[in-house]
Amino acid sequence: MVKGSAMFVRGSFLLAVSSALLVTSDAFVVLQPSARLHKSAHASAHAARRSECLSGLKMTAVERNVMKESIYGLKQRSNGDIWVPQRARPRRNRKNEGLRSMVRENRVEPANFIYPLFVHTKDSNEKIDSMPGCERHTEESCLREVGEAVAEGVSNIILFPKIPEELKSNSADECYNPAGFIPSLISKIKSRYGGSVNVWTDVALDPYSDQGHDGMVSTDKRGDGGKGRILNDETVEQLCRQALAQARAGADVVAPSDMMDGRIGAIRDALDSDGFTDVSIVAYTAKYASAFYGPFRDALDSAPRESSNAPPNKKTYQMDPANSREALVEAALDSAEGADMLMVKPGMPYLDIIKLLKDNTNLPISAYHVSGEYAMLKAAAERGWVNERDVALETLLCFKRAGADAILTYYAKQAARWLNE
Ligand code: PBG
């Protein structure tokens, strides 16, 4: 199949040709001034081939005239073929999969994924409208899902609970109830799968907060916009209790997503002083006040509540999307306070931040491919506008290229399946 066209625009040529190389090199030849072509048997055979090409090119009459003009800088080989005198041709390293895969700089594997699971206390699963393919799992369904993920080579999962309204409060005390939903689920997962999976937990008050905030809200209205303040130090104390309850239940990794100042060091000390020096801390280091968390908040019913007291957004603790240098300040603190890994969140719109942390810190970096990013891919794929498998795997690979070692993604199990196919 020959496809292509040539046109004359203000004295210069624009040549759009498909990747059919042999044919296109012939197509270039016709652009040479005819006077310079040899009148030989070779040349007439060549001319015949050219006209075959031309018929395929569906040139218009105007374009035929235009082709008599010479093109500045292009040379001719001895046989009359067009020659771009170019020694370095990067395409040579892309010419077949054997070479491409040899020089490939990044690969994404199931081992890189952390699989987030929404869980609730009801006795059947519930679909999440804005996150097709994700569900709020019952305990039993969660256990099954963990098993399926592990079977695909995903050895890290993270739990996000939807907590019944009657257990929520401003101080979120349910978050450290040793008999609460999450501690009991952690111990069930650990007793069923033991060492074949790392159970990660979210450390933040929002699933347990009746204000829909990651921290406790003051009643003094001395905060942003005349609303309550998100109390930093009082919240850190709750987070320490929460992390400890999770560690006691068997959590392998605790991941504070709250963005309070000083919480990494405080949680490290709380864990260590209770004997949990082996429990890892993955710090949400650069967590932005992002609009991409919408579907997640639907899933957990955890959005900031409309009230005269609660601030309507999380901008006084999560980072401003306009900033990048602040991410370095956070990274320096989290590293110094004992974090084992640094997380950037959201992922796709923040690849520059992943790269920035990768280049300026020495801890592993993880990217959170958040709910809104997932929803966008799903929505476009459902409409047939993109190929879901290809865009999802490309997205995950791009996190690696940007510098992420680990990727927290709702696609984890599915992507692992695709990679294992
Ligand atoms: C809250 C938390 C959020 C997410 C993970 N942990 C929401 C928020 O900060 O409001 C969002 C994840 C996602 O959108 O997928 N501690």
From TrEMBL:
<feature type="region of interest" description="Disordered">
    <location>
        <begin position="301"/>
        <end position="321"/>
    </location>
</feature>
<comment type="function">
    <text>Catalyzes an early step in the biosynthesis of tetrapyrroles. Binds two molecules of 5-aminolevulinate per subunit, each at a distinct site, and catalyzes their condensation to form porphobilinogen.</text>
</comment>
<dbReference type="GO" id="GO:0004655">
    <property type="term" value="F:porphobilinogen synthase activity"/>
</dbReference>
<feature type="signal peptide">
    <location>
        <begin position="1"/>
        <end position="27"/>
    </location>
</feature>
<dbReference type="InterPro" id="IPR030656">
    <property type="entry name" value="ALAD_AS"/>
</dbReference>
<dbReference type="Pfam" id="PF00490">
    <property type="entry name" value="ALAD"/>
</dbReference>
<dbReference type="GO" id="GO:0005829">
    <property type="term" value="C:cytosol"/>
</dbReference>
<keyword id="KW-0732">Signal</keyword>
<protein>
    <recommendedName>
        <fullName>Delta-aminolevulinic acid dehydratase</fullName>
        <ecNumber>4.2.1.24</ecNumber>
    </recommendedName>
</protein>
<comment type="subunit">
    <text>Homooctamer.</text>
</comment>
<dbReference type="GO" id="GO:0008270">
    <property type="term" value="F:zinc ion binding"/>
</dbReference>
<keyword id="KW-0456">Lyase</keyword>
<comment type="pathway">
    <text>Porphyrin-containing compound metabolism; protoporphyrin-IX biosynthesis; coproporphyrinogen-III from 5-aminolevulinate: step 1/4.</text>
</comment>
<comment type="similarity">
    <text>Belongs to the ALAD family.</text>
</comment>
<dbReference type="InterPro" id="IPR013785">
    <property type="entry name" value="Aldolase_TIM"/>
</dbReference>
<dbReference type="InterPro" id="IPR001731">
    <property type="entry name" value="ALAD"/>
</dbReference>
<dbReference type="GO" id="GO:0006782">
    <property type="term" value="P:protoporphyrinogen IX biosynthetic process"/>
</dbReference>
<keyword id="KW-0627">Porphyrin biosynthesis</keyword>
<keyword id="KW-0350">Heme biosynthesis</keyword>
